[in-house]
Amino acid sequence: MTEHARTASAQAARQVGDIAELLDVLWEQARSDSPAPNVPASQLRVMYLVDREDGLRMRALVELLGAAPPSASRLVDRLQALGFVRRDPCPDSGREVLLSLTAEGRRYLARIREERDDLLMRTLATMPARQRTTLTRSLAAFQEALTGRPDPRLLPPETPPAPAPEAQDVARSA
């Protein structure tokens, strides 16, 4: 990677980080404005992960969170007490537990996502159509780069992942 490419990547990474921080603040505001219960961000993250993979093993949740098993278990305990998550025995291992969202948990997430989508749609409506199209393509490439790789936490810090060819094409066309 050339010095110019490294600098451009560092600038892009900083901008993505700044946007993620801004979205965190906006999400927190939207979450705080939501009707009760006010689920903390750490518990909401658990709900997102369980929603992505219904029947998520508790051990997998611990790994995804990068948390100690007792901490993850306490998060699940709180969500279970709210009626948002349920634990079921794992059919192929008596020692493991599968996590699923309840219907109430799905409704809660849908409400949170609807509020966030509304906020984003109002913001995107202020952008010219061409910029929205470019943003959509770039975000799709970014999402593919993130999800098409092993868990980013497992990559050595000194080895930046190589950009996907599609992401380079989108970046050049932007």
Top keywords for this entry?
globular; 7 helices; Arc Repressor Mutant, subunit A; 174 residues; mainly alpha; 3 strands; 3-stranded antiparallel sheet
Structural notes for this entry:
The structure is a single chain. This protein is mostly helical and 174 residues long. It has helices at residues 3-33, 41-52, 58-65, 69-82, 103-124, 129-147, 165-173, and strands at residues 56-57, 85-90, 93-101. It has a three-stranded antiparallel beta sheet with strand order 1-3-2. α6 packs antiparallel against α7. The relative contact order is 0.09.
Q: Could you provide a short overview of the structure?
A:
It is built from seven helices and three strands. The protein has helices at residues 3-33, 41-52, 58-65, 69-82, 103-124, 129-147, 165-173, and strands at 56-57, 85-90, 93-101.
Major β-sheet profile: 3 strands, antiparallel
Detail the poorly predicted runs: 152-162, 164-174
Mean pLDDT: 82
The Rg value, from CA coordinates, equals: 19 Å
Alpha-beta content class = mainly alpha
CATH class designation of the domain at 38-104:
Mainly Alpha
Number of helices: 7
- Helix percent reads 55-70%
Q: What are the secondary-structure elements, in order, as H or E?
A: HHEHHEEHHH
- State the CATH topology of the domain at 38-104: Arc Repressor Mutant, subunit A
CATH architecture of the domain at 38-104: Orthogonal Bundle
Overall spatial form: globular
